[in-house]
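Tutorial, part two.
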Amino acid sequence: MLKWMHIENLALVERADMEFGPGFNVISGETGAGKSVIM
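Running the prediction step on this input gives:
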């Protein structure tokens, strides 16, 4: 199971730290925010 993720300098994402809880997690944002790049 994915528990956390750290991203730096990936396409549109300069830096992101995400922590995921048990169960269902949602990543949301406006069009062009980089959601698909993260996944």
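The chain has a mean pLDDT of 90. In part three we will examine how such features are distributed along the chain.
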